Amino acid sequence: MNRRWVSAFLMMMLFVTVPGQVFGTGPDSTAQKGGKTQEQQGQAPVYQNVSVHDPSIVKDGDTYYVFGSHIEAARSKDLQSWTRFTNGYTTPGNVLYGDLAQNLAGSFAWAGQNDSDSKGGFSVWAPDVFWNPEYVNTDGTKGAYMLYYCTSSTYIRSAIGFAVSPKIKGPYQYVDTLVYSGFTEGDATDKDSVINKKWTNTNIPKLIDAGQLSGASGAWFNADGSFANGTYPNAIDPNLYYDNNGRLWMSYGSWSGGIFVLPVDPKTGKVKYPGKDGKTADGRLVDRYFGTKVAGGYGKSGEGPYVVFDQATGYYYLYMTYGWLGADGGYNMRVFRAKNPDGPYVDAQGQNAVLPGDTDNAPYGNKLMGNYLFARDVGDPGTGNGVGYVSPGHNSVLLDDATGKRFLVFHTRFPQMGEAHEVRVHQMYMNADGWPVVAPYRYAGETLSKVDRQDLIGEYKFINHGKGTTADIQSSVYIRLNKDNTISGDVTGTWKKTGHNEAELVIAGSVYKGVFASGWDPVSERYVMTFTASSREGVAVWGSRLEDKTDQALVQDVYDDLSLGDTAKVVSDLALPAEGARHTAISWKSSDEAVVSSTGEVHRPAGGASAQAVLTATITKGGTSLTKSFTVTVLPYQDAKLSAYYGLEGNFADSQGRFAAGTVTGDRIDKSGGSITFTEGRQGQAAKFDGASGIRLPDGLISSNAYSVALWIKPEELTTYTTAFFGAKDGDHWVSLVPRGAVANNTMVWSGSTSWYDGATGLTIPTGEWSHLAFSVENGTLTVYVNGVQKFKGANFPDWFTGTKASFSLGVNWWDPPFKGLIDELRVYDGALTPAQAADLAKNPS
Questions:
Q1: Which parts of the sequence belong to the Extracellular endo-alpha-(1->5)-L-arabinanase C-terminal domain (predicted)?
Q2: Arithmetic mean of pLDDT over the chain
Q3: Is residue 402 part of a domain?
Q4: What secondary structure letter does DSSP report for 766?
Q5: Is 717 a catalytic residue?
Q6: How many CB atoms lie within 10 A of CB 498?
């Protein structure tokens, strides 16, 4: 399935208001004492979560609002419990826009409605809302809430428009479209579009006629007449901000040509175009139409600009996000600053946010946050794998006059949770050098206050966010802040507290400056001491203090927590942890290596009776040691039983007679039409898929968590995400056998989309040749075979089909390009194939 489409789909569906983990309204300040109980610490915060992608924060009275992509918004009184109040793309009757299609027709004429990448729907992204007391309404009155938005049809053809309302929750009435991108020198159209992209179909000719532009610029176009998006922006992600003199500005743009700014007339809401080309004093591009470039360029990632002026430091701060927004895209937030609203913006090393050339942008900008996990190890308090984020980004910032606090507001995905996303709010602090640093934990009502040095000494989980843009998750390690101001453990150096709460750490020669502050740890469910700091190289580090514990207590904690799950019916290898909390060592010994080894490798009997062995763990830290034993029962292989057989011999019948015949579909599982023919197959005839059709199999074909699927396949072409065999409980719970998947183009079985599982085989089957593919699921164990050879085996595969009437198909799903090529000999089994069965199927097609 197309992951980029999935993330957009999820942004549309949003998960409405989702009650979160209950953690509640915390006290303003609580410093950790090693033995404090939760009751002594104060009330736990209570969070209620929402999914609003690209959230832009605004405060109105005593209420905070976030407005985001795909026409979603939510409100909160405390930045912790959020309530959605919008209805997505509903039209007419849209909460924000009324008759959406008619109201925003001026922008949709260029991009975003039933066109190209938005075919079949709308694409309205990344709005910014604020109260403008100077705006002159059509009736002559002053003051309006202004909503600047973007519509988009491709990665470069977009437009920025604005609408106004007397009420913050709308409805907003369209006023004008201000900036267009993706236009061409001559007549041209995009795939699945009838819109002529020639520049004369934008607002540029009217601006020329009105004397606001000196004319069209030849620099806007490449030699072939296409839009020069390596230099000029995608017109998305508008952000409005006031400078220190009360003048209004708009920043906007994306990864292609970079981020630009334009001044705005507050009375009309319209931008002021430079009119002619030029250069800033420091050599940056000023374009007659697009404005002044302040960041990025050369097709490097960088989007979602958000500029705020901070009176306390006297700087304008430009926040932006690098990477791709999907769970595998490495989204991460950066910050630059400037003395002027239109730049130049530089990072802590003095590097300009505008790239000097076609170079990697990772070294540029102070990194605020990327993928991370405060890992929960065996023996740590709480449950689960810890707390962390994946692809956090597209932030806004609130400087709250009422509280004096600074907040970073963003969307994020989560480790092992696929494309599910939610809004998060973290408090920010200024370090001694005037750079923002982000609290390690989400906001729980805490206030920065004086801390006691004694409360800082102890063990911490430590995160180094680095500078890269990567899908890798930075997992926590252990350090100790010692009484003598040294740092020991996995990272070494020195530390000190300066002033009431300022932190300064020296690690590997780099000086990190930040603060010590209390934060709510949702895993241990207690307030803990934390630190957050940033270096001159723009690297952020975090620490979360652990309770003081003896070696004896830690060994006991690991002993109590250590589990191998259900060991009474084992069918796959066991994951045996080698380490527990704070580097507590765990070693293993097996009573019978032929049954299960000391590394967890399981050897199933070929048939007959089960086999047993005892695994004994020795848990050690310092001079303390405990042992814990587990009896493991390994089940024998049993032949899977054929439940359905679609030989595809000129028809779609199940020769076993248990299930109905398949039916032909169009290019999606739920569409009519399409055509499937038959030709010479691997055995007899095979179904020929034309790349626009599929076969809908009977509902309920699989209804348990022990099943197998096998088929012969001869692709004519390989398209990423295209399915060969597909089964789904619903749009968020599915299993797909894909000839070429999202992991290094591997042939694979994957599942998702709210929780992805990648069963990659390490190879890609060829086109123009027959290959045999089979996979088995047995109580959470997934095994994938290619040509009878096991290529993947993994645990914790999801159970989507037990007790459901799931949908099944060949060659199509709800989202991706249909399969083109031949499929033959589909077999479905009750139970898991044995290795011998899988090998035999690949040798004997009949």
A1: 440-543
A2: 93
A3: no
A4: P
A5: no
A6: 10
Same domain for 730 and 609, yes or no, is no
The answer as to whether 7 is a domain residue is no
Residue type, 636: P
Residue 134 belongs to domain spanning? 56-299
Q: Are residues 627 and 711 in the same domain?
A: no
- Considering the candidates 78, 185, 237, 303, report the single residue annotated as catalytic: 303
Do residues 51 and 19 touch, judged by C-beta distance below 8 A? no
Domain boundary among 258, 284, 299: 299
Torsion region of 39: left, alpha or beta (phi above 0 gives left; psi -120 to 50 gives alpha): alpha
pLDDT bin (cut points 50, 70, 90) of residue 796 is: confident
Nearest CA among 562, 463, 471, 558 for reference residue 507: 463
Distance, CA of 393 to CA of 381 (rounded, Å)? 29
DSSP letter for each residue of 680-705: E-SSSEEEEEESS-EEEEPTTS--SS
- Map residue 515 onto helix, strand or coil: strand
Looking at the structure, tell me whether residues 613 and 679 fall in a common domain. no
Tokens of 250: 């708009």
Is 523 within the bounds of a domain? no
Contacts 24+ apart (CB under 8 A), 560-563: 560/379, 561/378, 561/379, 561/380, 562/378, 562/379, 562/586, 562/617, 562/619, 562/628
Calpha distance 436→428 (Å, rounded): 6
For the record, the structure tokens of 426 come out as 């973290």
Any idea how long the chain is? 846
320-346: average pLDDT: 95
Please give the structure tokens belonging to residue 495. Answer: 């530390």
pLDDT at 754: 61
Report residue 778 as tokens: 């047995």
For residues 568 and 660, membership in a common domain is answered with no
What is the per-residue burial (b if ≥16 Cβ within 10 Å, else e) of 701-710?
bbeebbbbbb
Euclidean distance between the first and the last CA atom of the chain, given in angstroms as a whole number: 31
What does the alpha-carbon distance between residue 773 and residue 575 come to, in Å, rounded to a whole number? Answer: 27
Instruction: Provide the pLDDT for residue 25.
Output: 28
Enter the DSSP assignment of 432.
T
Pair (622, 649) in one structural domain = no
Provide the strand spans (E) within 467-546.
Answer: 474-475, 477-481, 486-489, 493-498, 502-507, 510-521, 526-535, 540-545
CA dist 261 and 447 (Å) reads 34
Residue 755 resides in a domain: yes
Which residue, 587, 608, 634, sits at the end of a domain?
634
In terms of domains, do 711 and 794 share one? yes
CA distance 566 to 535: 46
Rounded-to-integer distance, Cα 51 and Cα 411, Å: 8
What's the rounded Cα separation, in Å, for the pair 66 and 398? Answer: 11
The verdict on whether 537 is a catalytic residue reads no
Say if residue 27's pLDDT is above 50: no
Which residue is listed with tokens 């080309």?
A: 277
CA 639 from centre of chain: 41
Note the pLDDT tens digit of each residue in 582-623: 999 999 999 999 999 999 999 999 878 999 999 999 999 999
In 3D space, the residue among 55, 5, 438 whose CA is nearest the CA of residue 237 turns out to be 55
- Please check whether residues 715 and 586 belong to one and the same domain: no
Interval 796-812 mean pLDDT: 94
Radius of gyration, alpha carbons of the chain: 29
68: pLDDT strictly greater than 80: yes
DSSP 3-state of 40: helix
Name all contacts of 786-789 with Cβ < 8 Å and 24+ positions apart.
786/747, 786/761, 787/842, 788/838, 788/839, 788/840, 788/841, 788/842, 788/843, 789/839, 789/842
* String of DSSP letters for 73-119: EEEESSSSB-EE---TT--SSBTTTBSHHHHTHHHHTTSSBSSGGGT
Sequence-ordered list of residues with C-beta below 8 angstroms from that of 723, at least 6 positions apart, any chain: 1, 736, 737, 738, 809, 811, 812, 813, 816, 819
Question: Please, is 239 exposed, middle or buried when counting C-beta atoms within 10 Å of its C-beta (0-12, 13-18, 19+)?
Answer: buried
- Indicate the SS3 state at residue 641: strand
Largest CA distance in the chain: 89
